[in-house]
Every structure is written in C-alpha cells, then in structure tokens.
Design goal:
The protein is α/β, with parallel strands linked by helices and about 220 residues long. It contains 5 helices and 7 strands; from the N terminus they run E-H-E-E-H-E-H-E-H-E-H-E. The chain has a 7-stranded parallel sheet with strand order 3-2-1-4-5-6-7, sandwiched between helices. The structure holds NADP nicotinamide-adenine-dinucleotide phosphate.
Length: about 220
Amino acid sequence: MPVALVTGANRGLGLETVRQLLERGYDVHATYRTDAGGLELIDSDRLSTHQADVRDMTALQGVMRAVGDRLDVLFNNAGVSDGRWASIEEVDFDVVSEVLEINAISPVRVTQLALPLLQKSGFGKVVMISSLMASIDDCASGKSYAYRASKTALNMFTVAMKNELVEQNISLLIVHPGWVETDMGGPRAPVQAVDSVRGILERLEEQTLAMSGRFVEYTGRPLPW
Ligand SMILES: NC(=O)c1ccc[n+]([C@@H]2O[C@H](COP(=O)([O-])OP(=O)(O)OC[C@H]3O[C@@H](n4cnc5c(N)ncnc54)[C@H](OP(=O)(O)O)[C@@H]3O)[C@@H](O)[C@H]2O)c1
C-alpha cells in the first residue's frame, strides 16, 4: 500500500484529498489543527488522524513517528487566506507574519521532517498546494498582499530545494487547485473540490523526477511564475 500524509485535512480540499486517496488504495495519515471535522465521518481502517498545527514542530515530530518508516506522498495542503485589506495603509503585520508562517514556512518545515520517510519510499513525491495568486506575471489586480507573497515564497522555497531532493529521488509538484468552492474559495467559486482533487491526483500520477519543480494548474496547464 502506498502511504500518504495530508495536512489541514479536516475540511475543504484536504478532506477531499483524503477521501480520494483512500478510494485509490492509499494508507492515509491526515492532520487537523484543532477539530477533526469531516475526518470523523470517514470509516476506514486505512485512515489515521493526528492533531497538529503545521507551526508546531513537536506535534509534527509526533506525526512523523506515527507515520512510521516510509512515506510515498506528502500533501502540504494546510493554508490560510489573509486580511483582504482594502489598502496598503490597512495591512496588519501580525496577520502578515501568521500567513507567511503557515503558507510559506510551514510546508518547508513539514517537508524537512518528512525527508527521512520520503527517502525510504524510493520515489517520494511532495505536493505543494500553491495558488495562481503566487504568480508575479498574473498579479495585474494586485492586493491580497500577504496571501500572494506567501504562495510566491512557497514556490521559491520549492524550486530552491528541487536539486537537493531530486538527488534523493524525491519529486516536487507545485499545483494551483483552481478557484474551488470551499470555506476559503467561497460559494461563487466555479470549481468543485471533487474535480480539483481528481486533477491534482492525475498530475501526481504523471509526475516524474524530471518534472520536479513544475508549477501547474490542477488541469495540467503550466502556469507563469
Ligand atoms: N479554495 C480555493 O479556491 C484555493 C485556491 C488556491 C489555493 N488554495 C489553497 O488550497 C489549500 C486548501 O484550501 P481550502 O480551499 O481547502 O481552504 P479551507 O477550506 O479554508 O481549509 C484550510 C485548511 O487548512 C487548515 N489550516 C489552516 N491553518 C492551519 C495550521 N496552522 N495548522 C494546521 N492546519 C491549518 C484548516 O484547519 P482549521 O479547520 O483548523 O482552520 C483547514 O483544514 C490552501 O493551501 C489554499 O491556500 C485554495
């Protein structure tokens, strides 16, 4: 059985990722910050749930011990939106720091802790759930300061670690899930989580070492940096 770990899996895209990985025969480890939420409704002996804030090194070390000695796929999914400030004068820097910590730094922390387990896979894969809002080329409308900057930083962290990880047979996929109807995406979003995750898992299956560091939409469309 392939083994996967999904962060922020109690609702939204993370929860749907857990469901589809179980359907595909994975053993799934799912983390949640405070409330197990939708994970409690899944009845599968291949699902293990763990409480961990992605900023909490000690909790994450416990998760890695529970996963065991091998991990095939890591989904860095947990993320937050920002203050949607109307103007630069209104930006709250405490919120900026929190968004950068959760969206940009924490996926690197989780990946660092998972490396020994991913190495044991023989061909480990890491999925970074990024966003088109990371794209500097696509930033015509501006605003969403902290969210955009956090995902751009996540993309750069990922590309910067690519060479080292490819030497360890670990491939990195940076993916924009689309504008998806979740708590974050809101009710007007045109893409359903089930379709977004199906696409992301197709991208995961086709992912090779040579593709490591690519930035694509869930459909496979390459995105501008
Ligand atoms: N929906 C979209 O349109 C869209 C578009 C582009 C990218 N994305 C990205 O897709 C990912 C999933 O988003 P979503 O739409 O599913 O959002 P969501 O419904 O708001 O879910 C976010 C998840 O992340 C978890 N999380 C947040 N901060 C955390 C922390 N410090 N530690 C652990 N878990 C934490 C949340 O846990 P709690 O329940 O405890 O808050 C929740 O489970 C995010 O990285 C987001 O940036 C989404």
